[in-house]
Amino acid sequence: MSFAVEYKELWGVEVRAAGAAGPLAAFRVEPTLAGRATLAGYRMIARSSAGRSQVFYTCNPHAAEPLNAPITARMRVGFAVREAEPDAARNYLPELSGGIGPNVYAANLDDDGDVVAGGGSVVSGASVGEDEGIRIVPGVFTYRPAVVSSSDRLVVVSTIGTDDADREFEVLAGADEVSIDLTGGVQGPLEVGIKTEAARARVYADDELTHDPPVAVVDLYWETRQDTVGAGGVSYTLPLAERTDE
Known about the structure:
Layout: E1 6-17, E2 27-31, H1 33-41, E3 45-49, E4 52-59, E5 75-83, H2 88-92, E6 103-107, E7 120-121, E8 133-137, E9 140-143, E10 154-159, E11 167-170, E12 178-181, E13 188-194, E14 201-205, H3 207-211, E15 216-222, E16 234-240
Parallel strand pairs: 1-16, 6-15, 7-16, 8-14
Antiparallel strand pairs: 1-4, 2-5, 3-4, 5-15, 6-8, 9-12, 10-11, 10-13, 13-14
């Protein structure tokens, strides 16, 4: 059997000024280290350009099964959005409070947690807003609940976008905070809060991103074979509105 490699686009993800037709060159988009490892496992590669990153899967057209490393279960690839020009974040990102943000998080999931496979915006509104606020934390971090009572001392950590089991940590008697240790476990987008309370804080656990924080993280999820996508792949956008509060 002869061997050849063909590259076909699976996704494009770009930052775009709300209402504009092309990528916003004031930002750069590239996979996180964890995202690159996931892509490599599926024999896929990413290529980044101004305001955009594209992901390509590989095929061997001479093989009985042309597609290399098919996706058969839900997977996630994270993309870090950083400034390519001075003041880009100040000019285009909303003012997020430290309690909510100060970073932005978005994903190609709908309100029910299902993958939006058809492309389009990764936020529910016209542009990034308060709802996309998140705090980037390392794999071991301290969580301080707003209120801790003698009966409600169990903190639950839930993953966003996966069916991984919740993890529980106890706030010890006399303490008002708890150390959350995710070493060896699933990291990425999480919700954290007292188990008996509905309110949850959103955090993104990733050691690399803690050391070099991006202004935003975009997660793309997928759960079907790459070759089910049409020619040219699927395009996702992170729309930003130019701030006018100068």
